[in-house]
Amino acid sequence: MDFAENRPDPDELLASLKFEEEKSKRGKLKIFFGMCAGVGKTYTMLQIAHAEKLKGHDIIIGYIETHNRKETTDLTVGLEIIPRRTYQYKSTTVQEMDLDAIIARKPSTVLVDELAHTNAPGSRHTKRFQDVLEILDNGINVFTTVNVQHLESRSDTVAQITGIIVRETLPDEIFENADDIEVIDLTPDELLQRLSDGKVYTPERSREAIESFFRKGNITALREMALRIVADRVDRQLHEYMQLKRIKGPWKSGLHLLVAVSHTQQSSKLLRWAKNLSYTMGSDLQAVYVETSFKLSAKESEQLNKNISLARQLGIKFRFVTNNDMVKAIVDFAQKENITHIIIGKPKVRNLLTLLRLGNFVNRLIRYSGNIDVYILGSDNQSKDKFREKVSLPSFTSGLQQYFIASIVVIITAVLCFFIKDFIGYQVVSFGLLFVVSTLAFFFGTGPILLSATLSALIWDFFFIPPPYTLHVDKPEDMLMLIMFFIIALLSGVLTSRIRRQEMKIRVREERTNALYQLTRELSTATGIEEVIIIAKNDIKKYFDLKCRIILKNDNNQLDYSSNDDSGITLSRNDMSVAAWTFQHSSKAGKHTDTLPSGNLTFYPLKGNQMNLGVIAIQHPNVFTQGEEQFWDAFISQISGKFEREYLRNMAKQAYFLNESDKLYKTLFNSISHELRIPVATIMGASDSLLSSNHPQEVQNELSHEILKASKRLNRLIENLLNMSRLESGHIKPRLDWCDIHDLINKVTEGLQDELKSFRLHVVIPDDMPFVKIDFGLMEQVLYNLIYNATQYASASTNLRVKAFYDNGIMTLQVMDRGPGFPPKEISLIFNKFYRVEGSKAGGTGLGLSIAKGFIEAHNGTIAVANRQNGGAIFTIKIPTDIPVVDIRG
Amino acid sequence: MNLAETILIIDDEVQIRRLLEITLASNGYKISEASTGKEGLIAAATNHPALIILDLGLPDIDGIEMLKKLREWYPKPIIVLSVRSSEEDIIQALDNGANDFLTKPFRTGELLARIRVAIRQNMSSEDNPNLTFGFLSIDLVNHVARKNNEILKLTSTEFALLALLAKNSGRVLTHQSILKEIWGYGYVGQTQYLRVFVAQLRKKIEDDPAKPKLLITESGIGYRFHE
């Protein structure tokens, strides 16, 4: 059956459902999309707005650029306009859309022109689309306009067609995720007509524009591009629709694209191209960068960062792998990720050597990639960037000091050798020098190694090879040796330094992995939010050398700035609003970011799996490099995860307490009400009887006695409840004082005289029993409860035994009876609050033993129960206690 | 008892006052009542009671405060009633001039006994040099105690302890007040001394030291010598 093939991928389905759900809460984004300026996007948008308003929708203007076109300006009449906000930037004032006013106004729909616009410095976001995302987040629908040249993935092509480089670009993701796209189309002739009629620009500007940008060829190309994008989108929507509605159809066979990116400018083009391809193929796309030991220059690093942020803007997942063998790295990655197509750029050929090497690269990739298709994209002539071969010339970045030291070491070695050359011969000297060069390579960069290799070759030639003090070499074998010496010195030096660099890179990685491991380990043992904060701060200080401040949310889901802080970072009002923004939108903001970059703190959200926990503020003088940022993200996510777990644990605890108190409440009702009612009923009945009839003296006495008994029972219950509540509220603090155990037991048995009448009580206390330090009152209660229990369950005239002894810092008290003992199944539960052994006789609340346990634990002691061999139960109390040090007898 | 003694009950609970009134009246005492601290102070000043029963949990004035105020001029016995069974409260009350205490709920028989002891002790202000408790007699002048007419071998500290307790028989003495009295201020807090001597004393004066009849422990508070 091809059933399986026709079935949508469940994960994808789930993702699409989730996405739909997410989107429904947000406002809807409608884009009026055109090939270029002047096609009437704003005009159409306003027309539709009027129509919507007639239908009764609350639709207002957030920002409209009329370009002083009369038709457009006329259309704004009758719609509410949010006044623009004025920013002072240097000496000029700039007007921008007032984001907060729009959100505060909360219309159902707002019109925002020119989505790709870049905001004036000082605005909250660098780009207008970020403003729009925030508006959408607030559940407000947005109508906006976009021209095709503003799309990030098309900006290259547009530049190629029109020769104009577009600065204001829009991430494709925004466009792709728009809910609705309406194409405003005009034939090129109509557009040109409009231009020359002066409907778009003023006459002078029109002429200029027609000559430079609005050439018919250009317009046609842009138009085609715009229409194709929309057609692609419609196609994809159909695909998504079918997937959502489980319509059988020709499912695309799960294509997964991978684009291999380098640190060259060419790669940005590659990324855009790959993005287009993935559009058309309806497949997903990832990008990978292979980190090798090859050291990037500052410029190259910058380009790499640009490429990465471009990939992110294009909505491409970016991954790093480390391997000196690029081919292997790419293929391994592709296989792991089930990639079906690999896209690489065609390397630029500079000379024969690189041709050989690169040919090798491409060939190997094709050979090893097996059934994975490989696309090779041609390089761009305009790109002035030179493709630098991976193992090309080494970088000369070592400090001058290194060159100096390397030379000195070589010279010293040479001098030493000079004195002993008569003993060892000039040939052996070469080995010495070679050894020094190789050794230096362990410590120094490639530059100093090259220098020392050259230097030592020259020195050897000049001072050692006969004839000395000339560069001339007599014997051909010496000549050969000199050449070989030079090559070997060079190779070993360069190779060693390469290995070292690779090693360093690995070490950095290892250190990071280690740091993460350490962090995870420390976090795993931490309990309580306070401790996590301390660990996080310490580790961030240790591994990033950054001061940070952690601001967590409170129960009202707002950031709590009140918590103690020793970081020395103080937050201004402005910083707090940045923090709040970061928290709300769970994306970074502040310095070095696109959002609110004016302050000097950078804020990162602490994002858990299910919730935002707060933000972390850092004072960072430099931007993180790509590797650092990844490391930082991983670090932060570990910390966030821990915070989340702690938070959830607290919530669970609270829920547990609520549940417990609920249970307590119920048990109180069930058990206590019964326990209260019985004696109250006895008292009422007996006293009523005493009042109403004339009983003989005996009966009167008996009734009075019953009343007294019931009162005692009530009193015991109240005592227990009070003790329980003291225990529960944690108010029990034993007042430790010296106590004579005889006294204690005597006091208890005296109080239980009536109950003990029918038992044979044995008190066993050794003669040398010392005084112990306990709380007399609490221990009295404990013993009372235990002995009282025994009298309630053991049958009459059996033995009751109370035993006390002291051994090695521990006082032991035992209460033994010959009652029924406890069912083995329940014996572990009897100290639980309100627990009553099944089938036990009426009376009792199940509090006595739990109180005993609580009081013993307040003494840092333990209480245990066991069944005795020949029937009955034994309670054993162990309390660590002092005994008096001085013997004061006599 | 020739003349009916007046007892002032200061308690805000009507039921308790009523119960005490019935019990005490039927035992030949005259009763005066007050439901607040203020009323109580006035009644104490105007009615010249022979004894005051004071509830520590009054609505207007704190019990200990009340005790202090009364003790500024009132020399006769005060028995404290308290629902708070906490030992600290009781000790504090005793240290602030209360003669005795009872915790609610209490047995009326117990209360009557305490009242009798308190009044009697207050009346016999001049020291009787010979005290007798059943088989035990104590000669305070010659420092001799006899059990069944046999002279007990007591150390001087033991005798001092016995004499102190016996002179205050029926009344509870706190650990600290005993320590202060016999050993002096420096020994306050050293209850182990007291325990040792009480145990030794019991061995000598009690028939069954494990079940003392004379030297009674008041849990967590002190000792009382049974009359």
Question: Topology of this structure?
Answer:
The complex is a heterodimer of chains A (890) and B (227).
Chain A: H1 3-6, H2 10-25, E1 29-34, H3 41-54, E2 59-63, H4 70-76, E3 80-81, E4 85-89, E5 92-96, H5 99-105, E6 109-112, H6 128-137, E7 141-147, H7 155-162, H8 172-176, E8 180-184, H9 188-196, H10 203-212, H11 216-244, E9 256-261, H12 266-281, E10 284-291, H13 298-313, E11 317-322, H14 326-336, E12 341-345, H15 352-368, E13 373-377, H16 400-424, H17 426-443, H18 446-464, H19 476-525, H20 529-544, E14 548-552, H21 573-585, E15 589-590, E16 602-607, E17 612-618, H22 626-692, H23 697-728, E18 737-739, H24 741-751, H25 753-756, E19 760-764, E20 772-774, H26 776-793, E21 799-807, E22 810-816, H27 848-858, E23 862-867, E24 873-880
Parallel strand pairs in A: 1-7, 1-8, 2-3, 2-6, 6-7, 9-10, 9-12, 10-11, 12-13, 19-21
Antiparallel strand pairs in A: 4-5, 14-17, 15-16, 16-17, 18-20, 21-22, 22-24, 23-24
Chain B: E1 6-10, H1 14-26, E2 30-34, H2 37-47, E3 51-55, H3 63-71, E4 78-82, H4 87-95, E5 100-103, H5 108-123, E6 130-133, E7 136-139, E8 144-147, E9 150-151, H6 156-167, E10 172-174, H7 175-182, H8 191-205, E11 215-218, E12 222-225
Write the CATH architecture name of the largest domain in chain A: 3-Layer(aba) Sandwich
Q: What is the CATH third-level topology name of the largest domain in chain B?
A: Rossmann fold
- The value of Rg of chain B in angstroms is 18 Å
The coarse overall form of chain A would be: flat
The multimeric state of the shown protein is heterodimer
- Structural domain tally of chain A: 5
Largest interface, and how many residues on either side? Answer: A-B, 23 and 21 residues
CATH-defined superfamily of the largest domain in chain A: P-loop containing nucleotide triphosphate hydrolases
Helix content of chain A: 40-55%
- The dominant shape of chain B is globular
Query: What is the number of helices of chain A?
Result: 27
List the uncertain runs of chain B. none
Alpha-beta content class of chain B: alpha/beta
Adjacency order of strands in the biggest sheet of chain A: 3-2-6-7-1-8
